[in-house]
Structure formats: structure tokens, C-alpha cells
Amino acid sequence: MAQSVLTPVYGVIQNISPSQNQCCDSMITLLTSNGIVRFAAGPDTFVIDSARLSPGMSVAAFYDANLPVPLIFPPQYQAVIIARRRQNENVAAGFFNRNLVAADQSLQLNIGAATEISTANGLPFECSPGGQYLVAFYTATTRSIPPQTTPRRVVVFCR
Fold it and tell me: Whole-model pTM above 0.85?
């Protein structure tokens, strides 16, 4: 994920079908507020908690905005991370500095006593999560710049 700019797409899974050319790859069709978006998911796609994806599931799928994409309709991206979402929940992914501010200044995390912090493989993370790639699950934010939130959960992708 070095130098990745992870961009989220929120939607509900409409269909999951095997890739035409690769046995280990799938094509996931999401219904978003802007229409249909397709994601190629393969062995390198990280699914948070190894959730079994299924139609009707609300998810956040992240793609690397630095990678080229085909100019087709509906849009199609290579999924880097897929996370199941709770109702009214947002998911942010990307590099957060030591002060827990996202690299693009879009969000600042304030870790609370109830915030669950774990590594990508589910082990407890006892250190400060700053200076790492993180996936944060949260609901409300402040109207400050950058917006601040106390996440429900943080997943740390250790370098």
C-alpha cells in the first residue's frame, strides 16, 4: 500500500460473479447512490475480518486512485480493501500520521477508551496507531478542519 491513495465507494452488493479469466478473482457489482460500480477482487484484495461477502450487504470498497482504470461504463476498479458497514457508518482508509490525521487532511481520529484497535489479522494492537495505514469505522464527525471523530474501531496495517 506504499504511496496508495485509497478512495472509498459506498454501496450495496448486487452481484458477485467469478472472473471470466481468473479462477481466484471475482467481479463485485455495487449499487451506489450514483449508480452501478464494479470491483475486481482477487487474492490481493483485503476483506476486513475475512467477511463472507454476499448480495444485499452494505460495504465500503477502496481502490487506489493512483492506478490506471479502464474508461468503461459502468466504472470498474481493482479493490484494495473491502469492509462491511453498519447502518449510518462511515469507513476511512489510508495513511494517518503520528497525530492520527489522514494524509489528505480529510479526517482526524481521536482514540477513545471504547475504541477497538487491532491489527489486520485480528490481534490486539497495544501501541499508538499513528504513522500507519489504518481503516477506521466511525459515525459522526465535527465540523472542524479537519473533521474529527472518535472511531468505533481501527484496523492497523503494520508496515
Answer: yes
Which SS3 state, helix, strand or coil, does residue 134 take? strand
In the chain, the amino acid numbered 22 is Q
Distances (CA, A) of 31 to 47, 59, 131: 18, 10, 33
Q: What is the pLDDT of residues 21-62, one digit of tens each?
A: 778 899 999 999 999 999 999 999 999 999 999 999 999 999
Contact between residue 91 and residue 51 where contact means Cβ atoms under 8 Å apart: no
Q: Residue 82 corresponds to which amino acid?
A: I
Q: d(Cα 117, Cα 114) in Å, to the nearest integer?
A: 9
Q: Whose grid coordinates read 470491483?
A: 39
User: How far, in Å, CA of 129 to CA of 144, rounded?
Assistant: 22
pLDDT in tens, 61-79: 999 999 988 889 999 999 9
